[in-house]
UniProtKB/TrEMBL annotation:
It comes from Nitrospina gracilis (strain 3/211). It comes from the Bacteria. The lineage of its organism: Bacteria, Pseudomonadati, Nitrospinota/Tectimicrobiota group, Nitrospinota, Nitrospinia. This is MerC domain-containing protein. The keyword Transmembrane applies. Keywords: Membrane, Transmembrane, Transmembrane helix.
Amino acid sequence: MNWIELVYDKDCPNVDAARANLREALASCELPPTWQEWERSAADAPPRVKNCGSPTLLVHGRDVALSPDTEAGHCRLYADSKGGFHGAPPVDVIVRKLKPHTENAVTRFSGVAPVLGVALLPKLTCPACWPAYAWLLGVMGLDFINYTPWLLPMMAVLLVPALGVLAYRAERRRGYGPFILGLVGSVFLLAGKFYFNQPIVEYGGMAILFTAFVWNAWPVTKSRSEAGCPACFAPEKVS
């Protein structure tokens, strides 16, 4: 199922405006102009869209505007940010719903890259090795600096935004599981590198932290029971 769906009646006068606004919103979010359309009375229309008003726009099965005008057989009205009303979802309303889904895997992995890069830097605890490091850096045109005292503060500072990436809007992706896993990985990473001085603990923490970011970036697939706007199912009759 396409994650963007347009539900309409075949005689709806606002469906063309809905398509135009959706196309403009997708272009604004730099998303491809593709979506699924359902004509409510068509034989292939799924039952979950039969009770939607026209036009209704669903993003991952959720109505872009939770307005009260959602009954089947009725033309819908949508409020814009200026207090006006339209027969099709306004562009700004659609963009607001699409924005959370424009984050890609590269964006979500950007937080962990600096942490892993700094974690791989060796601690310069052996003065006898400093000439070798100085020679290697000199070959690359860099000056030798004993950065070891700054490694722990650098790691701590970089871990804060990295964990923030895992926590930000977590409920819209995989919940707080990746954040908790990333927190555990961070503890192992810091303890292994700066307290126990055990590479196996350090690398284990790096692996756990990387796994947390993979988990966080993995696409979320809505189950069939979660799909559908609030008006896409007829209310239960109470006897």
